[in-house]
Protein backbone atom coordinates (compact mmCIF):
# COMPACT_ATOMS: atom_id res chain seq x y z
CA UNK A 1 0.00 0.00 0.00
CA UNK A 2 1.23 3.50 -0.78
CA UNK A 3 1.60 5.69 2.29
CA UNK A 4 3.21 9.04 2.93
CA UNK A 5 6.96 8.53 2.91
CA UNK A 6 6.91 5.11 1.23
CA UNK A 7 5.07 1.83 1.06
CA UNK A 8 3.58 -0.63 3.51
CA UNK A 9 3.45 -4.37 2.89
CA UNK A 10 0.06 -5.55 4.14
CA UNK A 11 0.13 -9.35 4.44
CA UNK A 12 -3.42 -9.44 5.83
CA UNK A 13 -2.35 -11.88 8.52
CA UNK A 14 -0.15 -13.96 6.22
CA UNK A 15 3.56 -14.49 6.53
CA UNK A 16 6.46 -13.03 4.61
CA UNK A 17 8.90 -15.62 3.29
CA UNK A 18 11.94 -13.53 4.21
CA UNK A 19 10.90 -13.64 7.89
CA UNK A 20 10.55 -17.44 7.72
CA UNK A 21 13.93 -17.64 5.95
CA UNK A 22 15.56 -15.57 8.70
CA UNK A 23 13.90 -17.65 11.43
CA UNK A 24 15.07 -20.93 9.89
CA UNK A 25 18.58 -19.70 9.15
CA UNK A 26 18.90 -18.31 12.69
CA UNK A 27 17.93 -21.72 14.04
CA UNK A 28 20.53 -23.29 11.78
CA UNK A 29 23.23 -21.00 13.13
CA UNK A 30 22.29 -21.86 16.72
CA UNK A 31 22.28 -25.61 15.95
CA UNK A 32 25.68 -25.37 14.25
CA UNK A 33 27.14 -23.52 17.25
CA UNK A 34 25.82 -26.28 19.55
CA UNK A 35 27.38 -28.98 17.37
CA UNK A 36 24.02 -30.34 16.17
CA UNK A 37 25.13 -30.59 12.55
CA UNK A 38 22.14 -32.66 11.42
CA UNK A 39 19.65 -30.07 12.67
CA UNK A 40 21.78 -27.24 11.26
CA UNK A 41 21.93 -28.81 7.80
CA UNK A 42 18.17 -29.46 7.88
CA UNK A 43 17.27 -25.91 8.99
CA UNK A 44 19.62 -24.34 6.43
CA UNK A 45 18.11 -26.56 3.69
CA UNK A 46 14.60 -25.50 4.68
CA UNK A 47 15.62 -21.82 4.68
CA UNK A 48 17.20 -22.14 1.23
CA UNK A 49 14.15 -24.00 -0.13
CA UNK A 50 12.11 -20.82 0.30
CA UNK A 51 14.09 -19.14 -2.51
CA UNK A 52 12.49 -19.16 -5.96
CA UNK A 53 15.10 -17.17 -7.87
CA UNK A 54 16.80 -13.82 -7.30
CA UNK A 55 15.56 -11.59 -4.48
CA UNK A 56 12.84 -9.15 -5.51
CA UNK A 57 13.11 -10.37 -9.12
CA UNK A 58 9.76 -8.89 -10.16
CA UNK A 59 10.23 -5.56 -8.40
CA UNK A 60 11.69 -2.46 -9.99
CA UNK A 61 14.37 -1.56 -7.48
CA UNK A 62 15.79 1.81 -6.67
CA UNK A 63 18.85 2.62 -4.61
CA UNK A 64 17.35 1.55 -1.28
CA UNK A 65 15.91 -1.74 -2.53
CA UNK A 66 19.16 -2.52 -4.37
CA UNK A 67 20.87 -2.53 -0.98
CA UNK A 68 18.25 -4.95 0.36
CA UNK A 69 18.64 -7.22 -2.67
CA UNK A 70 22.40 -7.31 -2.10
CA UNK A 71 21.89 -8.07 1.60
CA UNK A 72 19.49 -10.91 0.84
CA UNK A 73 21.69 -12.43 -1.88
CA UNK A 74 24.76 -12.28 0.39
CA UNK A 75 22.74 -13.87 3.19
CA UNK A 76 21.63 -16.62 0.82
CA UNK A 77 25.23 -17.37 -0.17
CA UNK A 78 26.30 -17.36 3.48
CA UNK A 79 23.55 -19.80 4.46
CA UNK A 80 24.45 -22.03 1.53
CA UNK A 81 28.09 -22.11 2.69
CA UNK A 82 27.02 -22.85 6.27
CA UNK A 83 24.79 -25.70 5.04
CA UNK A 84 27.71 -27.14 3.11
CA UNK A 85 29.89 -26.78 6.22
CA UNK A 86 27.33 -28.78 8.24
CA UNK A 87 27.22 -31.42 5.48
CA UNK A 88 31.02 -31.68 5.55
CA UNK A 89 30.95 -32.12 9.31
CA UNK A 90 28.41 -34.91 8.83
CA UNK A 91 30.70 -36.71 6.38
CA UNK A 92 28.62 -35.98 3.29
CA UNK A 93 31.64 -34.98 1.21
CA UNK A 94 30.83 -37.43 -1.61
CA UNK A 95 27.28 -36.10 -1.90
CA UNK A 96 28.22 -32.42 -2.22
CA UNK A 97 31.21 -32.53 -4.56
CA UNK A 98 29.08 -32.02 -7.68
CA UNK A 99 27.21 -29.11 -6.10
CA UNK A 100 30.50 -27.54 -5.04
CA UNK A 101 32.02 -27.86 -8.52
CA UNK A 102 28.97 -26.06 -9.92
CA UNK A 103 29.21 -23.32 -7.31
CA UNK A 104 32.94 -22.89 -7.92
CA UNK A 105 32.29 -22.50 -11.65
CA UNK A 106 29.57 -19.87 -11.02
CA UNK A 107 31.65 -18.06 -8.38
CA UNK A 108 35.25 -18.36 -9.61
CA UNK A 109 36.59 -15.82 -7.07
CA UNK A 110 34.73 -17.11 -3.98
CA UNK A 111 37.51 -18.52 -1.85
CA UNK A 112 35.18 -20.08 0.74
CA UNK A 113 33.48 -22.27 -1.85
CA UNK A 114 36.83 -23.37 -3.22
CA UNK A 115 38.04 -24.17 0.30
CA UNK A 116 34.98 -26.35 0.88
CA UNK A 117 35.42 -28.06 -2.49
CA UNK A 118 39.07 -28.80 -1.77
CA UNK A 119 38.23 -30.28 1.63
CA UNK A 120 35.37 -32.39 0.23
CA UNK A 121 37.62 -33.72 -2.53
CA UNK A 122 40.39 -34.58 -0.06
CA UNK A 123 37.98 -36.39 2.25
CA UNK A 124 36.65 -38.30 -0.77
CA UNK A 125 40.16 -39.54 -1.51
CA UNK A 126 40.84 -37.06 -4.33
CA UNK A 127 43.80 -35.10 -3.01
CA UNK A 128 45.27 -34.46 -6.47
CA UNK A 129 42.02 -32.95 -7.71
CA UNK A 130 41.80 -30.82 -4.56
CA UNK A 131 45.28 -29.46 -5.27
CA UNK A 132 44.30 -28.78 -8.90
CA UNK A 133 41.32 -26.73 -7.64
CA UNK A 134 43.73 -24.68 -5.54
CA UNK A 135 46.04 -24.10 -8.50
CA UNK A 136 43.17 -22.99 -10.78
CA UNK A 137 41.88 -20.59 -8.13
CA UNK A 138 45.40 -19.26 -7.60
CA UNK A 139 45.76 -18.63 -11.35
CA UNK A 140 42.37 -16.87 -11.55
CA UNK A 141 43.07 -14.67 -8.53
CA UNK A 142 46.50 -13.72 -9.86
CA UNK A 143 45.26 -13.12 -13.40
CA UNK A 144 42.13 -11.14 -12.57
CA UNK A 145 43.05 -9.37 -9.34
CA UNK A 146 46.80 -9.69 -8.96
CA UNK A 147 46.27 -11.48 -5.63
CA UNK A 148 47.44 -14.66 -3.97
CA UNK A 149 44.91 -16.96 -2.29
CA UNK A 150 44.04 -16.09 1.29
CA UNK A 151 46.07 -17.35 4.22
CA UNK A 152 43.25 -19.82 4.95
CA UNK A 153 43.50 -21.36 1.49
CA UNK A 154 47.28 -21.43 1.62
CA UNK A 155 47.02 -23.21 4.99
CA UNK A 156 44.61 -25.74 3.53
CA UNK A 157 46.90 -26.34 0.57
CA UNK A 158 49.78 -26.98 2.98
CA UNK A 159 47.63 -29.34 5.03
CA UNK A 160 46.64 -31.19 1.83
CA UNK A 161 50.27 -31.56 0.82
CA UNK A 162 51.12 -32.93 4.28
CA UNK A 163 47.94 -35.06 4.64
CA UNK A 164 47.54 -33.25 7.96
CA UNK A 165 45.39 -34.58 10.78
CA UNK A 166 43.62 -31.19 10.69
CA UNK A 167 41.74 -32.50 7.64
CA UNK A 168 39.99 -35.28 9.56
CA UNK A 169 36.24 -35.45 9.32
CA UNK A 170 35.71 -34.30 12.91
CA UNK A 171 37.68 -31.08 12.42
CA UNK A 172 35.62 -27.93 11.71
CA UNK A 173 36.36 -25.66 8.77
CA UNK A 174 37.05 -22.88 11.26
CA UNK A 175 40.61 -24.21 11.47
CA UNK A 176 41.16 -22.58 8.10
CA UNK A 177 39.50 -19.27 9.02
CA UNK A 178 42.27 -18.22 11.39
CA UNK A 179 44.12 -15.11 10.25
CA UNK A 180 47.82 -15.18 9.67
CA UNK A 181 49.85 -13.35 12.30
CA UNK A 182 50.10 -9.68 11.38
CA UNK A 183 47.47 -9.89 8.58
CA UNK A 184 44.17 -8.03 8.75
TrEMBL record:
SUPFAM superfamilies in the cross-refs: TPR-like (SSF48452)
On whether Transcription regulation is a keyword of this UniProt record, the answer is yes
Q: Gene3D superfamilies, alphabetically?
A: Tetratricopeptide repeat domain
One Pfam entry name? BTAD
| Residue span, Bacterial transcriptional activator domain | 16-161
Supply the alphabetized keyword list: Transcription, Transcription regulation, Two-component regulatory system
> Does the record bear Acyltransferase in its keywords?
no
What CDD domains does the entry give? BTAD
Protein name per UniProt: AfsR/SARP family transcriptional regulator
Amino acid sequence: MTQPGGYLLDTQGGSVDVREYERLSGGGHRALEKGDYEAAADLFRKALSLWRGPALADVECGRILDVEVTRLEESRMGILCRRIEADLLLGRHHEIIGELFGLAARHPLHEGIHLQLMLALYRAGRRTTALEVYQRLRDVLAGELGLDPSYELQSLQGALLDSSSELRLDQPLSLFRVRAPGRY
